[in-house]
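REVIEWER CHECKLIST
Item 1: Sequence provided? yes
Item 2: Single chain? yes
Item 3: Sequence as submitted:
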Amino acid sequence: MKIAECINIISKTSKILELYKNSSIDEALDNIFNDLTEYKKNIEKQRTKNEQNNSQINFDTFITELNVKDKDEMINELDKLTKKNLINIISHIGLKMKSDSTKIQIINEIVNHFSFIQLNNKISERKSNSSES
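Item 4: Structure as written out by the authors:
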């Protein structure tokens, strides 16, 4: 270690010790530990909140992509998600399920929802094509 680095470390340590000049070493260390622990908890809460916000944003994209897949592809994609994410999708698309529903039941409900939408779109296309002829 170079002298300049040592001076820098001592200077920082001096500033910290100055904050605790009327405390014992044990009290100072306990206080620093508690402050750092609380700081890390707050950082983790913020990270979790950011991840939840990001996953909410991604639901729109995921649902849009899901709407154009066939039934097997939908099941494969949905099976990769957690039950919590599936419940979020259910509420995001406006469906209601019992809270004790299994993951498979939720997947089937979502797949049926999009399958009916696709079927209705195909029927509409046929009607409009047959009326044009």
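Item 5: Key structural point noted by reviewer: Helices lie at 3-19, 25-66, 71-79, 83-92, 103-132.
Item 6: Recommendation: ____
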